[in-house]
Amino acid sequence: MSPSAELGTILLVETDPLLRATVSKYLRGCGYRVIEATNAAEAIEVLGSHDVQVLVTDVELRDASGFQLSAQARERRPGIKVIVTRSAERTSAAADDLCKEGPLDHPYHPQQLMDRIKRLRRS
């Protein structure tokens, strides 16, 4: 079994291609299998066909909000862990309902995301 199979699969939904590529590369380097999506529709397709343990989504997607996507993900996979990211100027009380620690502010260092994933996986 490969190390990435042992750690699990992360679905990264991010509209910014540079951020998505940077974070994906980092998470893969940490041993996770990463599936990338650019919008909610792609993410829903992935959730229907892959065993995803962690969803990382931007709060503002082109076709839905990250909160809407998170709710749909939880309906499909009740045990999925969710991390919602956002730009510092955006706030939302709804994040507390979906994400135990609240949104992770943009810009974030990939290590901050890795730390959050580790905490979620232990909870």
TrEMBL record:
Domain Response regulatory, first and last residues per copy: 9-121
Keyword Phosphoprotein: yes
Assigned keywords, A-Z: Phosphoprotein
Highest rank taxon of the organism: Bacteria
Listed Pfam families: Response_reg (PF00072)
The protein's name: Response regulator receiver domain-containing protein
Cross-referenced InterPro entries: Bact_response_regulator, CheY-like_superfamily, Sig_transdc_resp-reg_receiver
Any Gene Ontology biological process: phosphorelay signal transduction system
4-aspartylphosphate: residues bearing it: 58
